[in-house]
Structure formats: structure tokens, C-alpha cells
Amino acid sequence: MATQHSRSAARMMMAPAVILLLGWMLVPLTMTLFFSFKKYLPMRGGDLGWVGFDNYIRFVTSSAFWPSVAATLIIVLGVLFITVVFGVLLAILLDQPMWGQGIVRILVIAPFFVMPTVTALVWKNMFMDPVNGLFAHLWQAFGLTPVEWLSQASLGSIVMIVSWQWLPFATLILLTAIQSLDSEQLEAAEMDGAPPLSRFGYITLPHLSRAITIVVLIQTIFLLSIFAEIFVTTQGSFGTRTLTYLIYQRVLESQNIGLGSAGGIYAVILANIMAVFLMRIVGKNLDA
Amino acid sequence: MGQITLEKVSKTFGDVEVIPPLDLTIENGEFTVFVGPSGCGKSTLLRLIAGLEDMSSGTLKIDGQDATHVPPAKRGLAMVFQSYALYPHMSVRKNIAFPMRMAGVDKAEQDRRIEQAAAALNLTDYLERRPGQLSGGQRQRVAIGRAIVREPEAFLFDEPLSNLDAALRVGMRLEISELHKRLETTMIYVTHDQVEAMTMADKIVVLRAGHIEQVGSPLELYHKPRNSFVAGFIGSPKMNLIEGSEAAKHNAHTIGIRPEHIDVADSGGQWQGTVAVAEHLGSDTFFHVHGTGLGETITVRATGEVGFKYGDTIHLTPRADQIHRFDASGLRVE
């Protein structure tokens, strides 16, 4: 495997894939960079020439920018918190031997297979509708005024929808991790006098740390770019305009490609900052 | 103090009776070994004593106190697991400190006991390492250290040496024996290896399918096996068990003769056969002899170097006073 010859052969065989992936990433990035320095308004005169850093300055100084960053962070951190905490609890629950285990596990995983648009529609119309939604009926059953979820608790609603969607993923990864825990370790801790909560804290949780790291990393990548859930439910109103959604509005609703591209570059920078932080905080878990 | 008494203790999993009701007393300070073939229930019995499994019926007493429903941590027993079960994310020091931390022992006392255990087990240089950075033997010692610092009434060992290589196993066997002599604490040790049982035990409990076949000191079991199962299980190489006409001559259903109690000669022996395999160990020579007309292969042990080779005719004479006799149900006949 490690001869000079086999190594160069391996390199040659990997080359097409590497070149394709590199092109896939570099071409759009370069184009975004290119447009971000232009004033480009497709419906209002098209390409109006170079403007330097004008788009970058306008994007950041816009009153919508900082709220959108805040909304993005709230959604990402909120969903991460809910999915990790409930993922661990569900994984422990599903690890217990019980009747109908196979079916229960499939049911738990099911939401992950539902398309984001469908998920958002189901929640918006079937659960959160203030007139016909299940929640409205539930509130009325207790004599309360139904909550207008998507306007009164808009960010919370989005976090709830996205958490519902990603909880199965977290549960699945954490469940496989829990199943690999050596039961003798738990028994040893039991003999050593550790009550159940200490056993969880000292044995189970450290064992899960690597799986939690993976869940956090992968989910962050996908959560930074959630779009369908917002598009279908609030259209970015009531404080749910994330950075992704703001860029979409700049490009397609205001038809300003240059401004949107500048926003895109900011999003790339933000994602990288978060990635560096995450790697710093949790990366050491992956070394061991 | 550490006397453990089992009264009519049984265990069933669903419809399967793993351990039929049994009685056993383990005296304070005794090194007791549970030995038997795999699946005989010896580990289950240990786990019942530890409290990791619930008894289906019966009572367990520790120092005369009923401990049947006492949770594992409160029984004052420390267990060493087959897989060592060290906590992989804690250093050796924290691993050893864990039971004391759970018991709320104060910090200075914790450090004193850790240093003492580490010195006794040659772990002082490794206290800051993680279990993953240690060899098998060192991990085993950490697991023992974690048990010692609790100062338990009794130690429970569940096949602790089966993951070690042969040389290390002999070394650890001695260390555990020395530890027992020094601490004088009750120890219960589960193994399928009869050599470990013979070398370490004060008292051996031979189990088969959950039944106690015999309880006794190693030499009692060697000289007076209660039945043909114990006779075949204790001793290495295994005792030759012969049925048929040869056994009938001794008024028995089965006779047993240990390989070391058969004399070999070129001619004039009681039995005659051909050497199928000769194992030369230097100090001893083992012959596996075929064609003696006694049914099975007869194993013979001769001291020193004896010159028979594959295919040679060999004459065997059992020492008459060393023949064990068993009846049709396998019980010993005096």
C-alpha cells in the first residue's frame, strides 16, 4: 500500500475528484467575489461598472444587517442546544430494551426524511395556525387565547420547527455512540458507589463527547444556511430574517446582485469564524 | 471481616434456570476460586454476590447481615472486571480516586490511599496517564488499585487475567496471591483456567451447569475428586477416564488414572500401545498413546527426557494405589 508506486497511483486516481470539487467550490466563490465589487441591477440597467467596496459598506451599514446576524445565531445556537440535550435524552431512552423497539426507532428517525418545505408547511398549517391549528385547539380547550405563533413567537417557532427536523439526526448519532459504551464501565461505577446521575455525568456523558462534537459540527454547517423553513413560514418578517434570508432578499427581491454578493462573502467569513471557534472548542475531542 | 454466606440462592433468566438453588459459605480471609467450563454460571454467581444481578430466590449474607436487597455499592465489595472497565477519559489517579470521591472521603486521605496503592502496585510513575496509554498488565493493576482503595470486605475478580498474554498472566497470578497474603481480605475469583484455580486458591468451588460439583482445597480436589467431572476438570493434562472391561476388573463403571501416575517401559507393562504424539517439554515428556484397547487415547506424563518417538510401541503400567473408581452415575467409589 505504501510503496512509491502505489502512492502516485493513488494520487492520480484521486485527482479527478479533487479537481472537480475544487472547481465546484472555486467557480461560484470567484463569481461571487467578482459581482460583489460591481453595481449590478438586472432590471434597472444591468451592469453599471465597478464600485470598489461600496457594496460591502452598504451591506453592513444597512439597519437589517446586525439583526440578521443575531437572528442567525439565535436560531443556530437554539437548535443546537435543543437537539443535543433532547438527543442525548432520547438516545438513552431508545437504548433501553422495550417492546416494539424497531418501530419506535424508525418513527423517531422519520422527521429527518421529510423535506424542509413540507416540514414548514405542516407546522405552519396544522400546528401553528391560530384558527385551525392543533395548538390553537389545545389552547382553546383550556380556555386560553390561541397564540399567533409565527408572529408573536416567530423566532421560537422557527427554532422549534428546525429542531423537530434535526432532532432525529442528533438522536441517531448519539444512540449509536451510547450503544458502543462498555456496560462493564457502568457496572464498575455502580459498584464504586456512583448513583445514576453521577454515572451519567462521569461515564456516559464523557463517552458521548466525541459524538456530540460531530453532531454540533455537522449541524452548524447545515443550520447556518436554513432557508426553506423561513421562506415558507414568515418570509423573513417578525425578526426571523437570517443572514441567508437577507442575502436572498437583496438579490431577488431588491434585484441587487452586487449587494447580495457582498453579503454572501460576509456569510462565508461568518461561517469560517464559527468553524474556527468550533474547532478550537471541540476539536480536541476528535484528537484522542 | 468478610464472611459471605449463600443460602438457597438461585437465578433464572426467563424459563432458563442458570443457577439452581445452592448453598455456599465463604469464610473470612479465604481465597475462593469459582472454576468451571464456560457457561457453567460462575460469572453469574459472582454477579449475584456483587449485586449486579438480582437473585430469583434465596438469601445472601455478608458477615451475618442479610444483604439480599442491599444495592451493590453498599455491600462493601469491590470488583475487578474482565475488561478492566477503567474510565477511559480519566487519568489513572482519578480512576483510582473515583470510588473514594463517590464515598466522600476527604482529599488528604484520598491522596494517602492512592500513593499507598500506587506504590504497592508499581503504578507511581503512571498516575497521570490515561488508561489508553497503559499496557494490559498495567491496566489490570489500575483496576486492582481502584478496588484496594475502597478497603472492601471482599474482592471479587471476574476472569481478570484472561485478556493478558501467557507470561504476564503468570506474573499477575503471583501478584494477586501476594496481595491476598498481605491484605488477608476475602477474595472470590472466577476463572475457567484450572491452573489458576489450583495455584491461587485456599478453596476451590467447581461448578457445572450452575451446580456445585465439589468444594475443597486444591489438593483435596486433586486426590479425592468427588465425581468423574471434577476428576477430569482438575489436573493438567487431564485424567484418563477408562470404561468397559478394564474398569470392570476394578469393580467400577469408570476408572480414572492421572497421566503422572502411569509408568512407562520398553516391555512388560500392563497395557501396550503406540505413541501418537510425543510432547517434549524438557522437564517432562507427554505421550499420547493409541491402540491400547482401552477406548480412548491415553495420556502419560514421564519425568525428564524419555526416548520414545512417534510410532514406537510403549508399555504402560498404572500405579494401583492411584486409581480412582467411579460408579455408573459418575460418583466416586472408595
UniProtKB/TrEMBL annotation, chain A:
Where does this one sit in the cell? Cell membrane
Report the Pfam families cross-referenced here: BPD_transp_1
- Which residue ranges run through the membrane? 12-37, 69-94, 106-123, 155-178, 211-232, 263-282
How is the protein disposed in the membrane?
Multi-pass membrane protein
Q: Which GO terms describe its biological process?
A: transmembrane transport
Q: Does the keyword Cell membrane apply?
A: yes
Looking at the record, the residues that make up the ABC transmembrane type-1 domain are 69-278
**Which CDD domains does the record match to this protein?**
TM_PBP2
Q: What family does this belong to?
A: Belongs to the binding-protein-dependent transport system permease family.
Annotated protein name in UniProt: Sugar ABC transporter permease
Gene source species: Neptunicoccus cionae
Automatic annotation (TrEMBL), chain B:
**Name listed for the protein in its UniProt record:** Sugar ABC transporter ATP-binding protein
Top-level taxon of the source organism? Bacteria
Chain ranges of the ABC transporter domain: 4-234
SMART domains linked to this entry? AAA
Which molecular function term from Gene Ontology is one that the record holds?
Answer: ABC-type maltose transporter activity
Keyword terms, alphabetized: ATP-binding, Nucleotide-binding, Transport
> Organism classification, top ranks?
Bacteria, Pseudomonadati, Pseudomonadota, Alphaproteobacteria, Rhodobacterales
By sequence similarity, the record places it as follows:
Belongs to the ABC transporter superfamily.
- Cite a GO CC annotation: ATP-binding cassette (ABC) transporter complex, substrate-binding subunit-containing
| A Pfam family this chain is assigned to | ABC_tran
